[in-house]
Write the structure tokens for this entry.
Amino acid sequence: MATRLPSPEDPTPPLLERGAPIGRYLVLGLVGRGAMGEVYAAYDPELDRTVAVKLLHVPGDGKVDLAEQKARVLREAQAIARLSHPNVVVVHDVGSFEDRVFVAMEFVDGQTLSYWLHAVPRDWRAILEVFVAAGRGLSAAHAADLVHRDFKGDNVMITGSGQVRVMDFGLARQASNRKSTGGGVPLLDRLSSSADTGSTVALAHQRAVEIGGRLGDARPSTPLEPIGAQSPPVNANLTETGLLVGTPAYMAPEQFRGQLADARSDQFSFCVALYEALYGQRPFAGGTVIDLAQNVIQGRMRAAPVSRRVPGWVRRALLRGLATDADARWLSMDELLAALSRNPNVRGWWYALGGVAVASLVAGSLALGLAPDRPSICRVGADRFAGIWEGAGDRRAVRRPAIARSIAASNRPRSGETFGNLARLFDGYVDRWSRLYQDTCEATNLRGEQSHEVLDLKMTCLRDRLSELGALSDVLVEGNAAAVTDPLGAATSLTPVERCADINSAGSAIAPPGDPAVRQRVNAARDRLVEIKALQDAGRYARALDEAVSVVAEARATGYEPVIAEALNRLALLQVDTGRTREANASAEEALWLAEASRHDELVVELATVEIYVAGYVEHDMVKAQRWINQAQVFLRRIGGHDLLRAWMQNNIGVALDANGDREGAAAQMSSALRIKERILGKDHPDVAFTLANLADTLNAIGRSKEALELSNRGVEILSRTFGVNHPRLLAQLTNRAEILNNLGRHEEAHRDAVRAVAIKGTGSGPELDLMYALAPLAEAELGLGHPARAVAPLEQALHIAEAADAVTELPRLRFAMARALWDSGRDRRRARALAIIVAREAAAYGPAGAGANKALSDPNGIRERAAAWLTAHNDV
């Protein structure tokens, strides 16, 4: 199947389809794509095996004949193919494919060194062993006159049998090929001189991407992508001086200066990666490529974290390898590895082992699924949550006590209780995250029940969830928690980690942008969206809204539709929270179409689920709501099912049906949603409590009040344990239970719940309608207890709120209650009859009971018949 060369107008070659030939190899599927080319999984029919085939780009700048360029790339690929070493990925074949060069290599089934480091906290000895093995592979490349130029943890594989292999020599060059033109243009000069808005200048001045993260952090530090593709063109010849290739976070000073990279440059990159693995952060900080380059060139290293214990002799070896002057580094990788293998404090065989022996020893432990002193490679260590939310008994904890101090300093009522409840929520979240992480890892690496592709999808989801927790943790200690409206509400608004268990198919994943520069900007936008959600959940709406507007602009600039849709969705939610309903509708609609166009199916389901609520409950339009229901169901099927999304959808369908009079149908939908949530989230999760309240309210309306009371009691208990007995989240639960108790004739208990609800509303924020919903059952309880005069004041207040808000479904009920209270108290019987007449006439205006789609509006709770009967019995004013 034909391909074509990239052109200036369209620099990205088309992808090859399944079955397309590359030489004798048949394409099975795309594995990865980057600045240097594409990697395909392919079938070798001659040897009946799967291989990885890398199609290399042949650079052209118009100055050198294309055939000459291709011949040079082919020669370098052949040089890589001649490299044979146990710690280097095996290259089987090299050849030409139309106007490109391909390299066929072994298909490695395993995990990257970066993943291995993040799976569990590693002892410095275990880290050193694996790096020494990888270093042997680099040393072998240098001995074969090859320079890697892009060494990092992502380019080292640990196979299923435990072998350590250096891979991805796509940036490699022959060290002896020094076709220098006399000094390249330094990176900083190119950055400062470029006027191209798509160049690295734009990249360097966009929102800073933190380069110096912690390996123990929930948000592992992500290397900056190779920027050669988006840098201003200097020299397209990969072997000439001046072209920036590699990953900036691991580059040597000479690479930033535009000079030739040699074996000592690989040594520098190796030491950066090893330093990062041992200390949990890279040696040089930098929020942008410019900042990083300046720190590296000037040798400004950050202070080593005191929490990491690394032997002095190891640090001294690393510091020499990180010298700014290449001549001051170790003479060779062999000398560096020898220094890292000589422990002056231990005399024995462990550090005397060389090359293959070290690799074999590591292989033994990994093949058994073990790391030194660890029962499983999949166990999550406590250090994973350092700086986010440490365990209660961790004496090194920093973030946990900082949040406690922040909440105490906020002068919040019952701050101690608030922190205690928050700690339970965060502890539970971390525990569920850890258990799901371990199970997901073991399903692939130990039990063999799950593919590596699905593992990657789930692990990406889990990293996102922990990033979300980290962002909220940051907000809680930002200044002090006084700025956080509701810390407990924010904690329960964290996306459930259980969603990550529902990724059933690789087909539901969205392909990332092919361009590394665009991918980096997309990742930065998504990081900001996580931070904005934390601000929103914490009630800091104004700042979150400003940030969201900015991120939407950033997302649009990427041209990547999935992230634009995500940003618009977050903006729409914030616009709803800040009363900008019309703007929210426009943002949500655009987000929906973009999500559909880009096959962001999960977001389509989320958006459609919200629209079910808006159309069915808010607008009382079940015809429109049904269209959203159909859309949500179709897209749920397309992603292969997602139980939590289905539960939220069914909850909203139930609410919509209830608002439009189909309460039996509503009860069925809510019951199904409740069963799913209880199974996935557990019976005591706050989200379960909200569906319990909805279902109880519906059952109460159809006369099943005893069942409703049992469900309501559960909901109150769950939220009381989660938030405390006076939290605003309890208001709706108490109001609903008061309604149920009134229906059961238990008016004293109803009165107590209603009084509590009114008191909670008086101390908190939220819409005035919440107060109206609490005052209504309070007045009904007073009437039931024979105190009609005491019902008048709460009804007057509730009527005022309902009329101002045009709450058409609540006005008939409140007016009829006021008619009874006025009549029975003897206060104003003329007004009492006038109110009852209005109720009867308004209800009649909607037509006969049960007619049309709006049964709830036609005669809510049978008020029309009751008002008419009451008027007949009370006609003597």
